[in-house]
Amino acid sequence: MQLHDLTPAAGSTHSRKRVGRGNSGKGGTYAGRGLNGQGSRSGGTKGAGFEGGQTPLTMRLPKLPGFKNPRRIEYTAVNVSTLEVKFEDGAVVDGASLKAAGITKSEFEPVKVLGNGEVSKKLTVKVDKISASAKAKIEAAGGKVELPC
To answer: Is the pTM of this model over 0.70?
Structure first.
């Protein structure tokens, strides 16, 4: 059996009723539209979103304020307390090591280190951005910070 051999079951398909083609076609006179009124006219329906003359929802809602910058860079925030837990003393913290530690989803996503928590290990941090407090804490612990130019 092939796809072209398949047919619908007997009696399951019907030809559509052709209305508005005269009284001999069983759909004449008013063609199922009734006598008068909006529904009997050609194109006699209101558009999508029409609410019976009430002010539509789309007009009641406010316009979106402000400006959304399409070039905004979303940084993944990582605290120094997370680096303290996830990395050993003397480790290099970069995109690949952050992904390996399960902190970021990709080694290429931009990362900013924030200063929440304490750090006591000597870490070499190579990230895109770092807060002033995080930089001070890492350097106070004997580590160093390398930012891209």
So the answer is: no
